[in-house]
Write a structure and sequence with these properties.
Helix content: 40-55%
Strand order of the largest sheet: 1-2-6-5-4-3
Radius of gyration: 30 Å
Shape: elongated
Number of helices: 8
Largest sheet: 6 strands, mixed
Structural class: alpha+beta
Strand content: 15-25%
Distance between the termini: 79 Å
Length: 281
């Protein structure tokens, strides 16, 4: 399915995609189009009830795995501060419900050779505002809510395009040779796609909205861990956190840790855990 805005409305192209390639199109219609005006009139007289959808309560974003306890505490404190500020401010209007109705098999579009369904929507907001808009698609099998949900993916798609253009070296071409430009675009897109697969396998989709440098730095931070086991407990520390723990140990504890470290080192590499002979000893 191709998801576009009103600026890309073209009946001949939409028909070609559907008839020759089996690709559907999803697009809002312009106000003056006959199919939209006819759909509104049919919605008044067809006797069908409007489908009502209410948005679910927003869920708190999941906490990234492996986040240090100190950062988790700061984040909880920050969220509490934000909630306090929101209670003191006038809340912005929120979407309470959406009424949807599909009018299928529309065919007044002169340059369009395939039927479309038009989904009419009325959004009711908490301040009493009602926004009316529409979507049209060549896919006749989708329900009105499915059509709306598909179109909401457009903002994510556009954000990914912005990331590719601004942060993935996709537009700074260093050669005028078409073959080199093609190679640059191809390899950048391959690298981006492979990284998305990697994030999906790590279940770290929360990193998708980061720029490339910050994302790679975050991945390096996540992978660089020191794991400590003791008495059926485990701790995941960054190298700096581990170093801080060692430097703040009491003298007796430091000596015990040093002796244990030398024993482990000597097991892995015999002789490596022994102290070199110091001058005068």
């Amino acid at each position: 399915m191709v998801i576009v805005d009103r600026g890309f409305i073209d009946g001949a192209t939409i028909s070609h995609l559907k008839q020759e390639h089996g690709v559907d199109t999803l697009v809002p219609l312009k106000k003056g189009m006959l199919d939209l005006a006819d759909a509104k009139e049919l919605a008044k007289v067809d006797g069908e009830a409007w489908e009502v959808w209410r948005p679910p309560a927003p869920k708190a974003p999941p906490e990234p795995p492996g986040r240090p306890a100190s950062i988790r505490r700061r984040e909880r404190k920050r969220q509490e501060t934000l909630r306090q500020r929101k209670r003191e401010e006038v809340p912005p209007p929120v979407l309470e419900k959406v009424e949807l109705k599909a009018i299928r098999d529309m065919g007044l579009w002169q340059t369009l050779d395939v039927p479309i369904q038009v989904v009419l929507m009325r959004e009711h907001w908490s301040d009493g505002t009602v926004n009316e808009w529409n979507l049209a698609t060549t896919n006749q099998e989708l329900s009105p809510l499915e059509v709306r949900t598909r179109y909401q993916g457009r903002t994510s798609i556009e954000e990914r395009h912005r990331h590719l253009k601004c942060f993935w070296d996709l537009t700074a071409f260093r050669s005028r040779a078409f073959s080199l430009v093609t190679a640059q675009v191809t390899f950048v897109l391959l690298a981006y796609s492979l990284l998305q697969v990697f994030l999906a396998k790590l279940d770290r989709g929360d990193l998708n909205d980061m720029a490339r440098e910050k994302l790679l730095g975050e991945l390096g931070y996540e992978d660089d861990k020191v794991v400590l086991y003791s008495h059926n407990r485990v701790a995941y520390l960054t190298p700096l956190e581990h170093q801080k723990e060692l430097l703040t140990l009491s003298e007796g504890a430091r000596r015990r840790v040093l002796a244990r470290t030398e024993q482990l080192q000597d097991r892995m590499v015999p002789g490596a855990g022994q102290h070199p002979q110091r001058p005068g000893t």
